[in-house]
């Protein structure tokens, strides 16, 4: 961790003293089981190699294999949430990290030709929707982007989907009022540096190393997004969307502290047919090994607490996850 102040403490009560005693007992009970535990190969879809999803995925895979040596967890880097749901749908992944908003859309909002049923193991943490332009840009709000080219995240990412909705909410038509590219983060950062695009949007923890480099040179301005929230909820409003107003933490980037943006909650989801024993085992690790699952330099609000892990909105929990939570906390 960096010591940078966050909107919430990085880990909540699950790793506090009282909860640690209770969870330590549960962990000891797990270790004493005679059951050899689940076995096989788990395929975990994450995100871009240098981004937050991939970092979290590597930590989770290590914890799964440490706790369950008969399970092999293979981490796959991807463009992000939409690509991950496609992998689940096509049977090419077993677990995936996705934005709550994208998971909700996949279940019936027309994102795919047919709804994709997914189940959640838990609500993990909250990332920040970060819309940045060069500090010397005249653009100060999303509405000011009319006529300016932007990158809204790689094809297949949840940010790409949410970014177009952000433009719509500001009264701009993506591709018409605002020329849109879908670049991977490193490519988008270079395009901002050279002036090929006016700005970029990404959903991730803060600070993102790529954006920190840009913030140093040539400098960045982060656009306020929270005012667009009322128009981002879809037909059933914001309930269950995983979207809420959050301020950038002080010190995360130069001059960004306090800018009101949008927090996006993230889920660990799976195929509905995932073996309940595996779902139970992975869910227990989310609770019992919370402190080991925080990527370095993360100051985004981390949940990893039973009280918030189960808050998966309109995406139902897998029965194996329900079993784990009931076993640990009744």
From TrEMBL:
PROSITE patterns membership: TAT
Position of the signal peptide: 1-28
Superkingdom as given in the UniProt entry: Bacteria
Keyword annotations: Signal
InterPro entries found in the cross-reference section: TAT_signal, TRAP_TAXI
Residue ranges of coiled coil: none
Pfam family, any one: NMT1_3
PANTHER family given in the database record: SLL1037 PROTEIN
Designated name of the protein: TAXI family TRAP transporter solute-binding subunit
């Amino acid at each position: 961790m960096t010591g940078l102040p966050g909107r919430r403490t990085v880990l909540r009560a699950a790793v506090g003293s009282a909860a640690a005693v209770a969870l330590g007992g549960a962990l000891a009970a797990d270790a004493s089981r005679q059951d050899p535990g689940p076995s096989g190969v788990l395929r975990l879809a994450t995100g871009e190699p240098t981004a937050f999803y991939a970092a979290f995925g590597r930590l989770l895979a290590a914890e799964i294999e440490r706790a369950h040596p008969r399970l092999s967890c293979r981490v796959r880097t991807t463009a992000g949430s939409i690509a991950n749901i496609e992998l689940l749908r096509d049977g090419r992944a077993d677990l995936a990290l996705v934005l709550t908003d994208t998971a909700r859309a996949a279940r019936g909002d027309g994102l795919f030709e047919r709804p994709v049923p997914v189940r959640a193991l838990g609500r993990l943490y909250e990332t920040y929707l970060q819309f940045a332009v060069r500090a010397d840009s005249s653009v100060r709000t999303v509405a000011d982007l009319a006529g300016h080219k932007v990158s809204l995240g790689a094809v297949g990412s949840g940010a790409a989907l949410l970014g177009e909705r952000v433009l719509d909410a500001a009264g701009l038509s993506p591709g018409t009022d605002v020329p849109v590219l879908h670049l991977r983060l490193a490519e988008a950062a270079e395009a901002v540096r050279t002036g090929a695009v006016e700005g970029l949007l990404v959903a991730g923890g803060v600070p993102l190393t790529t954006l920190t480099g840009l913030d140093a040179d040539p400098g960045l301005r982060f656009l306020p997004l929270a005012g667009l929230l009322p128009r981002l909820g879809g037909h059933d409003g914001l309930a269950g969307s995983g979207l809420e107003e959050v301020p950038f933490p002080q010190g995360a980037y130069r001059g960004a502290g306090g800018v009101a943006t949008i927090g996006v909650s993230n889920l660990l989801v799976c195929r509905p047919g995932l073996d309940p024993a595996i779902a139970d085992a992975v869910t227990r690790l989310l609770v019992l090994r919370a402190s080991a699952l925080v990527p370095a330099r993360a100051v985004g609000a981390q949940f990893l607490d039973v009280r918030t892990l189960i808050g998966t909105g309109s995406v139902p929990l897998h029965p194996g996850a329900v079993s784990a939570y009931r076993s640990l906390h009744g």
